[in-house]
Amino acid sequence: MLTFVLATTPAAAQTLAQALEQAWLLHPQAQAGSARNAQAAANIEAANGLTPGPATVSLGAVSDRFHANQGQREWEVEMAVPLWLPGQKAAQSAEAASGQAQVVAQQHALRLQLAGELRTAWWAVAAARQTRAQAQQRVDTAQALLVNVQRRYRAGELARIDANLAQREVLAAQGALADSDAALLQAEQAFRALTGTAAPVQLDPEPPAVQDAPGQEHPLRAAASATLAQAQARVRSADTTRRASPELALRMVRDRGAAGQPYANTLGVKLTIPLSSEPLVRQAQSAALAELAQAQAEIDQVERTLALDAALARRHLETTERQWKQAQERLALDTDTLQLAEKAFALGETDLTALLRARSDALEAQALVGQQQVALMAARSRMLQTLGVLPK
What we know:
By secondary structure, this protein is an alpha+beta fold. It has helices at residues 2-8, 16-26, 28-31, 33-47, 88-154, 160-195, 219-240, 278-346, 352-387; strands at residues 56-63, 73-82, 247-256, 264-272. The chain is 68% helix and 9% strand. The protein has a four-stranded antiparallel β-sheet with strand order 1-2-3-4, with no helix packed on it. It is elongated, with a radius of gyration of 38 Å.
């Protein structure tokens, strides 16, 4: 049983692209993608058929058995097939083809949306791990300081208040560590909910973007264009379908007038042409035109949104890079200050409060550098997301 469970459990993804594949397999709409593709293929097959619908067969019988009973009999068989209206087959074939293209484009757009959610979860785990590592380092340094302070307190070099301050720093560091453990657990659970597996040990960054504006192949733009093409094809199909399909029927009758008379066979052809209904035609055309207007408005909105998002992501990336460099400069300054404070404390030139303050500043600066580094990598992923680039 254990072997079976291990064999059926998916392996943890090691890259962002692998994590996207696992998340895609679990996504509800992605699981219905094959069914939508099959439906689109069936629509194309139906639009390319010889007739717009299936043939029908009707059977009829006439007899005088229940009133005169003189042996009068009549049997009738009729087979009718619908016929394409002029231009209707080409219009519906184009509509079905555009529908299939729309399904594919929507799947790509959905995949990009899922990639955005995964990128957010990926870097949320990285940030939580960075915070947790800094909290653990704070605990370790606080405990080491406590050991040193207690030794000097027992030797009479430091006052009891210094020992209490060192003990308080350990307790504060342990509390921050517990908070970081809870935040890390929450981030890892969010990642597992998307992919079904745990986050990898090493969270590799994505390469920098090679362009600064969304291209024509952007999945959201392609999906909006496919929706517009589908709406345009539906308008053309509505224009060619101004009435119900005419029917061509082949009718065969076999009858006799009375008992003992031979049966006679007759064969006939019937053409049924439905009349156009102006209200129904306007109803279909109005619905198609409304869908076309909405699709045109949506593609315009997508164009504006892509441009604004790209500009915002670019500015955010530039700001994050500056903040990361500033955090490195602050870390260098606070590290030098901490070294001076440690030497002064060891020589008895400053008190423990000054050392704790310098140590706190240095740890805060180190944590800020780690956080800004993760934020920089997340900003690069955000830029790729805005450009419509999937993880590779």
